[in-house]
Structures are given as structure tokens and as C-alpha cells.
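Its record is set out here:
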Amino acid sequence: MDARASATRPPVILVASADEGVRASLLEPLRRRYAEDYRIVDADGAARAVAEIEELAASDGGSLALVLADDASPVGGHESVFAAARRRFPDVRRGLVIEWGSWADRGTADAVLRLMTHVQIDYYVVRPVHSPDESFHRAITDFLREWEAAAGKRHRGFTVIGDEAQPRTHVLRSRLARGGVPTDRLDPSAPDAVMLLAAAGVEYTGVPLVRTADGRVLVDPDDAELARAYGLTTSLPDATVDLAVVGAGPGGLAAAVYAASEGLDTLVLEGESIGGQAGSSSLIRNYLGFSRGVSGAELAQRAYQQAWVFGARFAHTRRVSGMRVVDGGFELDVTPGDVVRARAVVLATGVSYRRLAAPGLQPFVGASVFYGASSVEARAQTDRDVLVVGGGNSAGQAALHLARYARSVSLVVRGPSLAESMSRYLIDQLEAAGVGLVTGARVVDAGAAADVDRLDYVVLERTDSGERVSVPAHAVFVTIGARPHTEWLGPEVLRDRWGSVITGPEVLEEGGRRAWLGGAEGPAPLESSVPGFFAVGDVRRGSVKRVASAVGEGSVVISSVHAHLGAHAGD
């Protein structure tokens, strides 16, 4: 088949059931709504469906977006249609078809829970019983949106042209994806890249390039230039704002939503990407209200839009580097040399992962060694051996997502197990997905094979015996030793020896009465030792390292902000 023709072949929605009535009830609404953009394939049972999947995988340019089936039993004593689909098409979405009300049947409920725990399905779909059935179509479009994002099909006209071995190439792709702008990446020598650059009159000189939606080519743009290229603001206000929120992770975004919705003039300053660490999570399964789970990037983008429509202003890619307490509030130094004035501040900068003291990893940082659970890099690990270092939920989510693509994924933890640091549902899913577990070990070195210039192996050391062993690894994701970066704060903001901001009654307990710079009433629960300077989320000592907890703190802190502003209204 001609390559151009194969590239435009519509993705497939596969419907599989041995019951002709079930198939008909699914096929009719699917064909009526989606046939112009998708090829609807009908299979009269699981065995036929597996054959269709193998046929599609063998074709040139075929893609499978969604499988809907009512039978998850093994085919020919081997794997189910759902397992076959994921093996051949890692990005595919899979829905178990059930009857309306059958969730009350214990057998059906157990089947759904078992299949989700064993990573066989993404969710269930209720068979439509009337037309139009918008609940059914909502489930289908949710599946297709998730597939579109995972498969990189949301074409917005941005293309990164750069060498995969260059860390900056990965940074640019990550920044765009975290900003809700999925991109293509082309090797500079690829024919499509040569054609694009020739049309733009630009030569590749060894640094990555970004082709924008309007056809411009940016030469290794910095974060601010890149943000402006896809419509984000980086400017700062001249006037004093009621509230400056430093950091746009879950806690900062929640604070912005509640502050702006209650009429406060709110400015959010974010040095990197919206969403913080949570923004890189491939799937957050235990966040309230998202029964199917939600990606960190999706959650962050929704919160950002919610804050924006309430009137919160955002200064993207603007890092705060210093603060001073002044009459009427605070001055924040913002790189490269600006100042923001605010009557109150909510600090929500979260934490960053500690760098491993393994000298062999350093040459590969940003290209095949990543600090954080970057879901953007998962597809690049196809047919590779990957290690994830860490035992928390972020590590588990990263490993589970990587297992869709990589040849092998293993978690490396210093402790004896995952039970104390990871949610049970994640542990069960990791076991079902075949993710390996190396306990009682740490990474001490790494290296490349003689004939390649990318990571090839890492050296693990047993924490009990000191014994060292080399294991294959083409990529390493590190999610350990998270610490806040609060060294830029003024000395009057009380912190513990790790840099976490001390808040509430602990200010008086830790630093004594003189540590609190306010009146006799003492600090509010999330207030630091400086009146009007609050801390929420992971940057605060004693925080619970969960997205929901950060959102909760960001929400409730605004009542204390109001109280502070009201008490100092005449200042």
C-alpha cells in the first residue's frame, strides 16, 4: 500500500460479541455517529475479534482506537480480546460491554473489578437501549479522546525537529505536551523534516527547532518564547494584586480558583508547566469524581481553565527567585529582573526529586534518564528495558503507563516492599501488568555499550550486602527523595532542616513565640511565621503527599487569606 494512503487510513473501532442482538445495538449508533472518521469493524465473537486485531497489526499503517466486547474469556486457551488488543496496540482503549443495571449483579461487578485490577479493560460501557443514548456516546467519546491523546493524534500543527539524544529535544516536547499541545517529533534527517525546513527557509544547525501552528520555525526557543507561541501570557501586572499564588500545581490551581471566584485580584506565577509534578502523571485513579481516572495533564488543564474563567491571571514561565516583607504586603522577585507586589502570598511550589549520586547517569539526563514520572516519554520506550526508581504512587503510575510500551519495566526500591508507600490498587495493577520489583537495592552507576551512545545498563547495589550487579536499562525514571526548593525565601519564613515551610500552630511549637511575626492570635492553620504568607501542598511540612490533599489545602487557605486581607484593609 502507498505510504501516503496508509497514513490517512481511519482508525478502527472494533465491536465483538457472539450475540447478534448485542452487536446490532452497538453497531447502529456507532456507524451513525462515527463512521465518517473511524472504520467500524464487526466481529461475531472473541476469536474473530483477535483475528481482526492480528490482521490490522499486520497491515501497513493500521491503528486500533477502541475495542468494545462483552466477553473477556481467553481465546484458544491464551489471551482475551482485550489482552490481544493491548499487546498489538498499546494505546488502544478497551471497554467491557454490560447490560443496564447489571452492576447490581455480583458476578458482573466482580468481573469489572477483576478486569480493571488486572489491566485488561479501561472501563465498562453500558449497552445502549434507546436512541439517541447520550450516556453511551459520552462513554465512547471519552474513550476516543483518551486514545487520541495517548496516540499523539491531537494535531495542533506543532512539530519538534531535533535529535532524540539531545535533552533539549525532550524538554521542548514535554513543555508543549504539558501545556495541552501534543506534538510530533521528527529527526532532522527525516524527509518530512527536510521538507518542512526547506519550506520555511531554515537550516538545522544542531539545536532543536519548533515549527508552530502558523508555520513559523523557532530555533531552540526558551520557555517564555515557547509559551507565547501557543498563546500563553508571560507578562506581569504593574499594580499590587490581592493575592500572588506561587506555583500552579494542584494546590496552587485550587487556591487560584477559589480566590478568583470570591473576587480577589489573583495572579499565579509558574516557572515551568501547569500542573506541577501531578501534571506528568499518566493516570490518577483515586481522585474524587473521576471513576475512570484522569491524567495529571488533563486535570491540570481543567483547573487552569476554571481559574482563568473566574478571572485569575497567569504569568507562565516566570520563576520567583526572592521575597521581601514590605509595608502593605510582599515583594516577589521574578526572573529575569521584575518585581510583583502582593498583599498576600500562597506558596504552592511543591517539591523536586533528588538527583541520584550515580556518576554514570549524568551524561544521559534529559535524554534517557528522567527525574519525575514523565508520561510524555512513554511511547519512546517501545521495545526497551526500563527502570523506575521509587516506591510511591508517582513511581507506580509511571511504571504502569510505561508497561504499555516497554519490553520490560521494573521498580527499584530501597525498602523491603511497596506496602508502606504505595496504594494497594496500584500494587495489584503492577503485579497484573508484569512489572518487576527489585527491593533492597539502589542505583549506583550506569553506562553505555561500546557501540552506542545511549544508556544501556545500570549498576544496582544491594543495601544489605553491598553486592553490585549490572542490569539492562535503556531508560531510567527517578521519583525519590522529593524536597522543596525554598532557599529563595526570606529568613523570617520559618522552615525545617529540609526546607519545608512550617505552618499553623507548629510555628510556635518549633520556633517559639518570637518566630511568629504577627499578633497575639497566632498563625492560621496554613499560615507561615509571616502574617499573610501561606503554604499549601507538598512544600508545607506535614502535608499528605496526595493530589486531593493539595487541592483541599489550596481551597481552604482562601478563607484565611480573606481574614488576613480584611484585618489589614487599611494598610
Q: What stands out?
A: DSSP finds 15 helices and 24 strands in the chain.
